[in-house]
Amino acid sequence: MSSENPIWALISTFGLMSLFAVGGAAAAIPEMHRIAVEVHHWMTDKQFADAYAIAQLSPGPNVLIVTLIGYAVAGVPGALAATLAMCLPTALLAYYVSRLLNRPSQSRWPALIQAALVPLSIGLMAASALILAQSTDRTIAAVLLTAMVAVIASVSRVNPLWLLLAGGLLGFAGIV
Amino acid sequence: MSTDSAPVAQEPEIRPTHAPPPGLAALFLAFARMSLAGFGGVLVFARHAIVDQHRWMTADEFNETFALCHFLPGPNIVNLSMVFGSRLRGIAGGVAAFTGLLLPPTLIMMVLAIIYARFGDVEVLRRILAGISCAAVGLLIAVVFRMMTPLLKRMDVVVMILMLGVFTAIGVFRWPLQAVLLIAIPLSIAVTYVMRRKAAA
């Protein structure tokens, strides 16, 4: 595998993955982790968790964690290739489907398929949480911080950015 | 989604609630602005900009467009930019919105990637990132919990089993996504179909 062009590996990996990302970027995290960390060894477990944190912290769609993975593999060209491979195929698919469905149809299928996908994408996102937690929550303090943020974000409408910054501050203070 | 209950003479060319369709540069800029404002999710900002601020779409049209992008694979908001832009300005509009949404944050990401590659091992940065990572996982758990709540309330055993099955296969056994979904999606569609038939009967 290592003999093939890394740019091509990125394009084929993420292009294919995007077609199976039901429920958006957070649902594709386990597969990204499996491929980037376990199959190709593009990054370590820790680097992957860092990439997720950086992607959450910066503006824009969360899917841009692929930009960081691409950069780790092949620098700036890799970053661009991974980003386009993850975003363009499904965007074009959406464009064609929207043209097909331009006439409001009486079909129940879109609604039915969407309802069928909901439990699957929740299962995938829960798997994302588990995999990321395994690589970040290595100390009691880290587990407590994760749990606290989970509770606060569940019961209040506080802006997620403040919670991320608070986490960063606690880390800076050496508590986590 | 929208039902035409009132017998109004509908003229698609004249929609008084709409602003005139934007140019390509305006589309690019609007999506770039949304994207940069959208920390931890762009969708809220997109709805606000498209429906309230620019009045390029009504709330119903936006929901319909989003529903379509939601049931297709891939990053929803990225799909939305392409579909939305193309509905207003054809394929060029789609590309303008798509590029506006992705280009600025991708550039920011690259700068961060370069910084990380150079200073990622610095102790202070390591600690800060560790704290942010914990918070990010906490946020994800909260999102999952919020999405699960309606399902838990319905106590739908089959749906729960599907959810748990996917979680276990992907999260615990680490099986490949394609293989798992190629089984899970048809199964879930079949189950949903049968349940809806039962509910209708």
TrEMBL record, chain A:
Q: What is its main location?
A: membrane
Q: Does the keyword Transmembrane apply?
A: yes
Q: Which organism is it from?
A: Bradyrhizobium guangzhouense
What parts of the sequence cross the membrane? 6-30, 51-73, 79-97, 109-133, 139-156
Q: How does it sit in the membrane?
A: Multi-pass membrane protein
Q: Could you say which protein family the record assigns here?
A: Belongs to the chromate ion transporter (CHR) (TC 2.A.51) family.
Q: Which InterPro entries match?
A: CHR_Transporter, Chromate_transpt
**UniProt-recorded Gene Ontology molecular function terms:** chromate transmembrane transporter activity
Task: Point out the coiled-coil segments of this chain.
Answer: none
Tell where it localizes. Answer: Cell membrane
What GO CC terms are in its UniProt record?
plasma membrane
Keywords noted in UniProt? Cell membrane, Membrane, Transmembrane, Transmembrane helix
Origin superkingdom: Bacteria
- Protein's recorded name: Chromate transporter
From TrEMBL, chain B:
Cellular component, GO, one term: plasma membrane
The record's subcellular locations are: Cell membrane
Membrane topology classification:
Multi-pass membrane protein
Q: InterPro entries under this entry?
A: CHR_Transporter, Chromate_transpt
Which spans are transmembrane here? 24-46, 91-116, 128-145, 157-173, 179-195
Chief location of this protein within or outside the cell: membrane
Q: Name one GO molecular function term.
A: chromate transmembrane transporter activity
Q: Which UniProt keywords apply?
A: Cell membrane, Membrane, Transmembrane, Transmembrane helix
**Which Pfam family, giving just one, matches this sequence?**
Chromate_transp
Keyword Transmembrane among record annotations:
yes
The entry assigns this protein to a family as follows: Belongs to the chromate ion transporter (CHR) (TC 2.A.51) family.
Name-wise, this protein is: Chromate transporter
